[in-house]
């Protein structure tokens, strides 16, 4: 089929081949595309039903989403798109990786915020911050080295913490049989209230400020470098693409990924095949949860080091939840997650300007929600796609030809 | 009068012609057998007749009238009934509840259980199929459960009964009972379609036999005019040696030994109650027994899935009682399972990925944490040729292969692992004649190579044909040990059913 050839060639450009994969299924590409198209149609109907012009709404939504170059504000919109997408892709990768191992890590949200708070801490904590501050001053024009190192330490510590947070749920699952969904969702709330109700209203706030001001600010050396002045675009998008590549590499190039996927494929039938081949299933599940959690935490560190520079008291949940949708739209494949993350980032970027034209922001939420809804219905979408393909196939090759060919 | 006629039925799946222009007719009151290898198209054909699939072309006639069967409901209305291989019964319901489900007698909106029980009793007397109408189905032996299934079909007024490999789950005794039942139904004028790949059974029960191969009808023969060899030839298209050649090998050192082994099942009951045996290099030890007498638990203990509660277990002289599967594998254990989908293969994985599982760590298939998929591919290509795994594309998923080819893939993998002790648990279950022969040949080659082999099987002919020593397992114990030249199928069958064992002495 030409679609699959195209996909293969497209992927080859990025050095991604079929090694370690099943033969590529073109439906993996078509299902999300069709779901998105259907969602856009549903969105139009909803907008029209509310008495507004759907074409104008979409023109504004996509015109200001940063996806389409041109216009005076484009550079800023493009930067916003990438900044948002970087965080969504991180949580999307987190959920997708766990999915591959048959685990529904619904706790990307909590892991995201654990990563954020730990990154904040290492961003302002005097022993670290002071060291890099001094180093920055001493290095002169090579000060960026201090910035890279400090940022890296914040991110790595955040990832370790987020990974450990997720591994707690993995541990409860492996040792005590606590369902991973239950474990991770509970840990979400524990993390959230531990941070928002205690850390950033108490120990991590400057004494001179009021309790509503959030945590200390990270020092300048901890902030992510900006890469497209004058916009606030930073290195997060590059780091997350690196993380996507690493996730892909882990899944399809390493022995761990080979075992993780075998576990994932057999998760609903007791994982007996991998166990019978001597694979240490428990250890792999713990590792998988750690990797998954650290990816979500990476997103959390972007939030702090690239945007807010402190843990703000206005932080609201949602990055981890969005990650679940993105993993679904991206069919749990790293490349798919990147594309889905960009799509959702674009919707959210464009939504603001749609609002300016008196079209509620929630319409873009409707499109997102309906897309995920159709993805969740992918069994049905696949079913009809296969039917259509079969129908065309049987018209092109009547049974008589088949017989001759066989 | 023709009860059922099939005219030029074809069924095409994408890339596969499952049924190719099949025509035959079945007389009323006839037992008509359909045999063929796995994947020959038997199940597809039955599913078309029973309305689960629709045919791509061709006509169906019931009682010499052309009919359209679009759903199972249509088939039931035409007085057809199917006894599935996997029973469609609810274990926590009584026999009566199971039989009347879907068409319950009622008083107003209330279920009239009393009348249901009376109806079931009447029915079971009328067709002389004895069941206890108020027993819980989950407590009944498999043979009786099947009887419940048959009664369910009869209550819906079935005149044409389709039996889909009904003997696959039965003991030899239960099979005899089933055949008695089938003859009774035949005497009542019912028409029976009997799907099987066990030639011996087909020769015993059928009036006429249709042979399918690769979706095509090879021919229809009268039982009187044929024999097993001819049928086997028609099925596989070449001569198949069903006789297993004898291989004499010098017996080597003890590879596996267990002493007074006790193993609990998942629910905590002791299922293996003190087994003592050993397996030497160069010999095949067969464990015969009816399913559910502790074989599964024994295997689970031997592959490290569960730890024995007491007793000893040694592999190559090393204590293996409390170890993991990985350690057993390292010490030289290989395992061929009957449950290919659950335990043998990762079905969505390709042939390539499946071929190295268990030896993927370290050289030659990985360096550090990096898998070397080129090496994996080369290895798989080699094995596909050596074991003739079809269709032969290493990028096909294991799930897309036929049962026989899946088992070949498992053999290819397990026999290429470094091992000296092979556990073969029902290695030919569900396989066709060709694949079965292949498995036998491989097991004998293993024996020649001096490996120790433990063969666990429900098929007596297999046990008798391959084993050097036979252990009979009943209720978690070894109740007899014999050799194939001294044993007969009848004597073994009785032992397997626990006849002639004084239980008081045993426990």
Q: In words, what does this structure look like?
A:
- The complex is a heterodimer of chains A (406) and B (507).
- With 406 residues, chain A is mainly alpha-helical.
- Chain A folds into 2 domains: 1-9 and 24-52 and 367-397, no CATH class; 85-123 and 151-333, no CATH class.
- Chain A contains 17 helices and no strands.
- Chain A has helices at 2-13, 27-49, 54-63, 74-100, 108-124, 126-139, 143-176, 180-196, 236-253, 255-265, 272-276, 281-308, 319-329, 334-356, 362-376, 378-396, 399-405.
- In chain A, α2 (27-49) packs across α16 (378-396), α5 crosses α12 (281-308) and α9 (236-253) runs antiparallel to α14.
- The model of chain A is unreliable at 10-23 and 398-406 (pLDDT under 50).
- By secondary structure, chain B is α/β, with parallel strands linked by helices.
- Chain B has 3 domains: 2-236, Rossmann fold, CATH 3.40.50.300; 248-332 and 420-507, Rossmann fold (3-Layer(aba) Sandwich), CATH 3.40.50; 348-417, no CATH class.
- Chain B is 33% helix and 27% strand.
- Chain B contains 18 helices and 24 strands.
- A 6-stranded mixed sheet of chain B has the order 6-9-10-3-11-12, with helices on both faces. In chain B, strands 18-21-22-15-23-24 form a 6-stranded mixed sheet, sandwiched between helices.
- The longest helix of chain B has 16 residues, at 172-187.
- Chain B is globular, with a radius of gyration of 25 Å.
- The relative contact order of chain B is 0.10.
- The A-B interface holds A 18-20, 22-23, 253-259, 261-262, 265-266, 269-270, 272-280, 389-390, 393-394, 399, 402-403, 406 and B 10, 12, 14, 17, 20, 56-57, 303, 305, 324-326, 328-330, 335, 337, 339, 341-350, 353, 357-358, 360-361, 366, 369-371, 373-374, 395, 397.
